[in-house]
Amino acid sequence: MFMTFRHIRKCQCVQLLTTGLVLCVLMVCWEDLDHHVVSHIRSYAYRYLVNRYDFLNSSLFVSSNHRLRKDGPSSASGGLEGYSYIINHPGKCRGGPGKGRANVLLLLFVKSSPENFERRQAIRNTWGNESFVWSELGMSVRLLFALGIHPDVSQRFQVQDALRQEDWAYRDLIQQNFLDTFHNLTVKLIMQFHWNQMYCPQAHFLMTADDDIFVHMPNLVKYLQHLLRSQSGAKDLWVGHIHKGAPPVRLKNSKYYVPYDLYPWPSYPDYTAGAGYVVSGDVATKIYQATLLLNSSLYIDDVFMGMCAKAMGVSPQEHVYFSGEGRAPYHSCIYDHMITSHGHATDVCSLWQQAIYSTASRNSRGFLGNLYCTAVRVMILCRPYFQNTYSCAAAFT
After folding, report:
1. Do strands 276-280 and 271-272 pair parallel, antiparallel, or not at all (unpaired)?
2. Could you tell me one molecular function GO term of this UniProt entry (predicted)?
3. Are residues 207 and 269 in the same domain?
4. What is the distance, to the nearest Å, from the Cα of residue 217 to the centroid of all Cα atoms in its chain?
5. What is the pLDDT of residues 93-111, one digit of tens each?
6. Per-residue burial over 322-341, b = 16 or more CB atoms within 10 Å of its CB, e = otherwise
């Protein structure tokens, strides 16, 4: 009897110690656990079960006496004053002296930092080359790099002088007098839609992209032309790589940290990855109107874009060859369909040469060549473990 009681006491002690150890581990790891598991469960439940974003029609609207000025976008904190242009090209979308507005297929904005001259130059020489698109594809594209001012005061004068020389040579920079920092990306987004409405409203499409992505321009132009010929006439279009039910990041050491007082809800509205997406002209107008009404204090620009779109009744559309933050595999069979690929700060020129050669040789493949490419895409994209690239569905497109 004594031994049984003693054995029970031992079991209880072991259980107590085990419970205490588990609780200690949970306390130490709770922040990571909450970020990776709990927040996603709450977010997906809100997105797919509740599916309600009523706050976009109430708390985030700016009151009528605090509306943003229509002659300029707001500050990142939803401020009252607009920013002025330091460098601007109001005539970029004109057909020429006395010719009025040009028929622009795509107005292409590239978000760039002031010091990233080499990235901008690589884009000018490759997929952003307006002359190539006109001569080889027969379409009019207008390229503009969107910038703020250098955040480091000690370097600002030197960088700004270099920017003015660069713009004098290429005439493709637009810049406003806000600090070019991560927390002002929403300001940069508003600047793009403002510029579109003020100076190039006739553009059929608007694209915003990072300066470290690669765009397969022949494939993109072909896709946009197909949309224009469709019955819908390229209306209500917002296409890219969609994030659905994404939760706000609550880890304070994260670059994407958003405090509860800034965004208290468990889920963001659906949005496309800010690395590269396209909207039709009518959607660009709606987004611009939303930026005049919504508080722009949320500094994550692609999420703010999702909020604007949700408020205006616009939904994103998935395209399997918009990579979002993913990177396209290097293979000619991938180049056949690729639209964007992320993470190309140094290899843009070599990738452009490979992709263009692949496009030129595509028509000569024949049935067996196309069958081979489908098999290759399946082997590359449909692996069982996670890979940050196109989805398996892209293999069959």
Report:
1. unpaired
2. lactosylceramide 1,3-N-acetyl-beta-D-glucosaminyltransferase activity
3. yes
4. 17
5. 987 544 467 899 999 999 9
6. bbbebbbbebbbbbbbbbbb
